[in-house]
Amino acid sequence: MIVLRVYRGVADHFPIRISEWIMVWPASGLWFGLQLDPAMFSKSSSFAFLSAWADEGTWSAVVGLCAVCRLAALTINGTFKGFAFSPHIRAAASMIGVAIWSQVSLGFLMAFLFAGGAFSGVIAWSTFVIAELWNVLRSWSDVGKNATRR
Predict the structure, then answer these.
(1) I need a labelling partner for 100 at 20 to 30 A (CA). Which of 34, 58, 73, 84 fits?
(2) Half-sphere exposure of 97 (CA within 13 A, CB side)
């Protein structure tokens, strides 16, 4: 019964939360990638600053936490009717995403400027920051809509 309820909650809100679901992919992908290749940072100068700030294991844990937070927020959303803080949880997950992807983007920018890294990484990773900012805006908009309904 609970599985059906969770499925229905996710499926009903999936189309309007697609940008949030999409952001699960880079977080979980980088998480698994860092687990599968613990020497990833040593293979490209684009990772020079990320590796200076923390090792692959630490980055993997942080990005993995981001993925888990996002999945939890999207599962909670819509599954539990009457839970007024669902948009707040989604907003928090998106803000965590902004924080992480902005640091990754900054690391790639610093590597481009000072360590011979590729500029393409700056563009790709900063796109995630923009997507997460959009998700924050939409989540807080839902907070406002819920407040006016009460």
Answers:
(1) 84
(2) 36
